[in-house]
Every structure is written in structure tokens, then in C-alpha cells.
Amino acid sequence: MRPEQIRQVIVNILARIAPDEDLSQIRDDVPFREQMELDSMDFLDIVMELRKLYRIQIPEEDYFNLNTMDGTVNYLEPLLKNAGTPA
Amino acid sequence: MPYDALIIGAGLSGLSAGIRLAYYEKSVCILERHTTIGGLNSFYRLRNRNYDVGLHAVTNYAVRGTKHGPLPKLLRQLRMDWDDFRLLPQCGSAIDFPGCRLHFSNDFAEFRQQIIEAFPVQADGFHRFVQAVNDYDDMSLVPPPRSARMVLAEYLSDPMLIDMILCPLMFYGSATPHDMDFHQFVIMFKSIYYEGFGRPWEGVRHILKRLTKKYKSLGGELRLRGGVHKILLDGDRAVGVELDDGTQLEASTILSSAGSAETMRLCGEDRERNDAHPPGDISFMETLSPIEKQPAELGFPYTILFYSRTPEFHYNTPDEPLDLRSGIICSPNNFQYEKPLDEGMIRITALANPSFWINLSDDDYPHVKQEWTDKLLTAAQPLLPDYRSYVLDTDSFTPRTIRRFTGHLNGCVYGASQKSLAGDTPVRRLFLCGTDQGYLGIIGSMLSGITMANLHVLKGS
User: pTM of this prediction?
Assistant: First the structure.
């Protein structure tokens, strides 16, 4: 997948986790936590959703990479290189 | 193939844990001894009428679209929608003590104003106390033990005001007599006075049915009449269960909402003796009276009225079969529904002595229950308009009923006084959820199941 497709995957996951948030205004370089009501339970869900969708394992020590959209896309790019595009 | 997880009990916590696990494709089966779901918060039909047991109101109310707080968090975690719970806000509640009635609603400012007007000398202390509640970290899983009464006494000097603040919080969640742990107090204080009460028009059955439907749609299995006879151990590790009918099921993890002592008993008598937190014995009797008129028409506008006929509130197991000095009067009619309930309903609840009710003979139980139902109705009558000529039917439940339907040893409603917030037991791969884990109220019990499923099954799986 290309970075913009990975970004869309993350937006879709956030929409499922936090349906009451407006995701159209998300800034990619600002931590999610500063823009939305996300707690540690929600971050576990981002990891679990990625595992469910693409069978990728993200170890707990790597969670810090998922703080911003830019960080998440960069971290996932090599892991999702060969993954199919989202429906 | 062993299950990824078995869950003991199809109450609010077990169903919620099941939804989390099934959503993430874990193989999971919920085991329920009874023929219906719900446990402590359930529903039944008697002589062609629907009744709720447990739930008077859902605490932690939030308006649709709220982003912060326990209810939005719960909906997110369950991937459920505001429409799934359809909570409508209360009309207004009150705390009645001799010579003083404090009103409160889902707007904390009203309660604050009532306290300032009724206890002007305490106003400043109350403001500072509220600040202390706001500053407290109630998400900690390892809070230091502290007495709520001691904290209250640092800010407030009027003993009746302290008891009035405590009364609804204790009635709606304290497993310990006389006092509460401050951690539990803060959770209850916010859930009742900040967030407030709500209820679906159909009552708790609506929430339970939505949870069950969600769970099954995700592939979760539910076995009714699937009582667990014992938990199977390999050394100090739980590996499965044996059901009442002899069936054996294997699992990597077991989550139990049966209670600490009850769960350890399932592991063997030695385990119960050595490892369990003793079961609590705070329990209640409740009478439920459907009436011909809407209670508000008769002059009872309250959603919940908490009362004590003595200035000092006695929250403990009474020596008598019932403590007639205090109680809760609830009308499920008094919520802001779009259309009124078909019939009026008055529920009156008081502290009961579990061993008295459990030890009665089968022959004596019905008439003793009737005798105390009458005493309870008489004791609460001064707080109510006279509705007796409109009563269509009356049913009551006691600690004996609660024990029968929940398996809690003393028919206790709020579980053991010592909680296991992290859910750990001395047996590996066996964890607690529900009342003995310790998140309180309807929303709390569901968050308990979710948190334990996240912590012990999903995280690091």
C-alpha cells in the first residue's frame, strides 16, 4: 500500500473507534491525543484493528510510533508494503 | 480445540467482555447457569407484567455525542451506538433526611446550589471538597486505601450533610458498611452527581438484549443452563471448566463474574479458604408495585428518592430482617421519555439481613416475606402520596432471591468489600470481572468486563 492508502486505513479505524469525532480536520503532524479524546484503551484498539485487518503484530515497545498520523504511516509503510488496498 | 476464553456469567460484565473478545476473533463462550441472561441486573415476567430486577437507573448518564466520560468510552469499546442504549435522562431525584430535602438532577449545579442554600456554613468546604474530587485520579488500578468519611470530614463539619452526600452513593454501590473507600466514592460521586441517571424506556432488558445480539453477531457462543460445577486446574493454572452436566471445556483464559469467594470455591475448598476475599453481606429487599396511575400524577415526581428517617444514616447489615429506618423509592416512570410507560410503578428498597432470609424454612418464607413487605410499605408511606388504592399487584425479592439467581453466597449485591481492581486471582489464567473486580454501577460493570478482557486476553496476545 502507498502512504496515502495507509492513511485512509487509519482514518477508517479511527472512525470505528471514535465515531463521534470529526476526522476531516486531523493534522498529521500533531499527536492524536491533542486532537481527539483517545486513551490507552483506544490505542490498544488501533493495534488490535491493524492485527485483525492485516495480521501484523505491533510490540508494545513500538506503540510510541503511533502517536501521530505521520508517525503511524511511516511505521506501517514497510509492514504493509505488500498488503492489498482497503476495500 | 480449547477456547481462547471462557466467561463465567452472562451478566453485564460477562457479556461486555465477550463482545470485546469476539470482536477481535477470539473463540469465546459465556457460561450461564440460569435460563436467562442478566445476573444481578435482570428482568422477569410475572402475571403478565414485565419487571426489572437490579437496575433502578443507569448512572453515568451522558447526552448523545458526548466524547468524554465512562458512557462514551463504553460505547466506543463495544462498537455500539447511542441508539443501542437509548438512555433518557431522569426527571429529578432527592435525598430526604429529617427536616431537609436536597434535590439533584443530571446538572451538578443544581445539587451544589441546594447544598449551599441548606447548609450555608458548609459552602466553602463543599467547594474545596469538589475540587479534591476533581483532582483525584480515579483511573488508577492501584489506588492507596483511604476512608471516604475521613476525607469528607477534612472539608465538611456537618455530620448530617456528610451522611446525605454518602447515602445515595452507598445505596448504589458500597460493599462495605458505614464507610466507603475514597477511590470508590469518587467514582460513585461523579457517576451519580456529575453525570446522573438515565434509563431506556424498556428498562434493562433493552440493554441486555442489545449486548447479547452484538455478542452473537460477532460469533460469540452463549450457553444458558451451562452452570460451572468446577474450574479445572493444572497445578496453579486454570485450564478449563466442568459444567453441571459433566461436560468439560478447555480454555487458555477464564474470566469469572461469579465473585471472588464463589470463584475460588469452584477451584476447590482449600482455595476458597486460603485465597478468597470473603463475600460481602450488604443486601436488600425490594417491593415492586405496578399502579394504575403515573406516580407524578399522584404527586410523586422523583426518579429516585433516597431517605433516612434518622439524622444519622446507618448503612450496614441490620440485626432485624430489614432496616426500616432508611430506603430508596424509585419510580421508573419519572424519566424524560417520549411516551409514558404503560403503567405506573413504585419500587421500594431497604437494607436486609441476608442470613435471616436465607435461613428461613421454605414453609415460613412466603408469609414472612409478605409480613415484611407490608412493614416496608408502611415505613415508606410518609414519603409518598397515598397510592395504595391504585396498586395492581405487588412482588418482592429478598437476599434469598438474589442468591438463587446470582450464586452470590450471601445474596450480596455489591460483592466482596475487598476488590481486585486488576482482576488477579492466585490461580494463573483465571481472572475476576464484575462486582468483585470493583467498577460500580451498570456502566461500571460493563467497563469491568471490557477492561479485564483487554488487560488479560487482548493485550500482548
Answer: 0.93
